[in-house]
YcxB family protein
Amino acid sequence: MSDKMENMVPEGQQPIHTARFRLTPAAYTQLNLIVQRRGLKKRRLLTLALAVGVTLIYCILTNVPVSTTILLMVTEALVVLPVSFLMDKWFLKLYARRSQRLSPAALDEQLFEFYEDGFRVVSGNSTDGFVRYNRIVSLARTDDYLALFITDVYAYLVMGDAADCGMQELTEFLQRKMNGKPLENYRTH
């Protein structure tokens, strides 16, 4: 059987659940907020490690005394963490501005059809390929959306109030299909 045939919905099968979604600037901003939060600790630790590493290499190459090297690295850590926090806020503002310029094609309403083995997305005159549930690496929930992450930064968003079965039932259905992978919670209330 070819890859193309494996990615198709079995003939005659009806979707178990359906949901609609329309990308808006608010949805795009929420998705980017999730992506930013998911990588926050890793990004900050990497930034700190790089800054301290560069300082350590400089101090070794220039024969700076050990006490001065330690003082420089501690001072650097105290400066890098707040700067990293400010950079995160700046990136979120950048994403928010970018989301206001979404292309009209991205704003088409999408219909999600959830089947026993996977889901597909229909928007306008096009249909995305069939996505098997084992390709979903994680689920994330905000107040308004459920994000189905295919990679660390690429996700499908489903509107919370649009699912025919209710968001809680759809979330539980997807968690069962994903063998109980945890749900990341980004709800504020």
Remarks:
- The CA atoms of residues 43 and 84 lie 9 Å apart.
